[in-house]
Amino acid sequence: DMKVTQMPRYLIKRMGENVLLECGQDMSHETMYWYRQDPGLGLQLIYISYDVDSNSEGDIPKGYRVSRKKREHFSLILDSAKTNQTSVYFCASSRGSDYTFGSGTRLLVI
Amino acid sequence: KTQVEQSPQSLVVRQGENCVLQCNYSVTPDNHLRWFKQDTGKGLVSLTVLVDQKDKTSNGRYSATLDKDAKHSTLHITATLLDDTATYICVVGDRGSALGRLHFGAGTQLIVIP
Questions:
Q1: Closest partner residue to A96 among B42, B46, B97, by Cβ?
Q2: Interface contact B104-A43, CB threshold 8 A
């Protein structure tokens, strides 16, 4: 079964700590994405990666960075987490107009 | 400014009833429109994708329409089941390739009661 896997599913961090969210896909999709989902809002694009080491900012990149060293892995890093980064983070991969989403990581920053 | 508006925001129906969810958008260009189902605490699962200027799709109890002239889409769910309880999200893609962007609605929360 083709899928996007996110780890961890749940995470609690203190303000100022570093956060690493991991995402993997087994479909050899070139393009991968990180989104965040907040109540009452549509998913917002944080970063997009077109392939290994080919990353671009999305609509809300401030406070985040990404790493893609292998096609199947795409990491989201929060250096010094802030309380307003409490959210649900979704990773996705795509080929053309075919998109697959992970199950999300719920991050609480206290 | 929100480019994808969904209505209603929430909806309660009795099991067995039909329902219609609406999606209006201003995204340009509008290459395709996809409806996703999101169960509570889960990821997005694609229900259907619409591509043509005036398109219709059917996937079991789910059927959808798209009118690109009106920039409007509907998702029909017939004979609802309790498992249909979820948030339904309308997403418009401005291109058919990775160079495009996806524009997400905030979703319609559907609750199906016995």
A1: B97
A2: yes
Q: Residues A26-49: what's their mean pLDDT?
A: 93
Report the residue of chain B nearest A44, measured CA to CA.
B104
Residue from A55, A99, A108 to probe the interface with B (highest B Cβ count within 10 Å): A99
Q: Which residues pair with B102 in a beta bridge?
A: B93
Kindly state the DSSP code that residue A83 receives in the 8-state scheme: G
Going by C-beta distance under 8 Å and a sequence separation of 6 or more, which residues neighbour residue A101? Answer: A4, A90, A91, A92, B36, B43, B44, B45
**Mean pLDDT for the stretch of residues B36-47:** 92
Angle A4-A42-B39 from CA coordinates, rounded to 5°: 55
- The residue assigned the tokens 């479909």 is A27
Q: Which residues in A lie closer than 8 A to residue B89 (C-beta atoms)?
A: 42-43
List pLDDT tens digits, range A56-77.
999 999 999 999 999 999 999 9
Q: pLDDT grade, residue B98 (50/70/90)? A: low
Host H or E run for residue B79: none
Contact at CB, A42 and B93, closer than 8 angstroms: no
A1: contact with B, CB 8 A cutoff: no
| Cα B66 to Cα B2, B4, B23, B63, distances in angstroms | 19, 14, 9, 11
User: Hunting for tokens 């979820």 — which residue is that?
Assistant: B86
pLDDT confidence band for B42 (50 / 70 / 90): confident
| B83 three-class SS | helix
Identify the pLDDT of residue B89.
Answer: 97
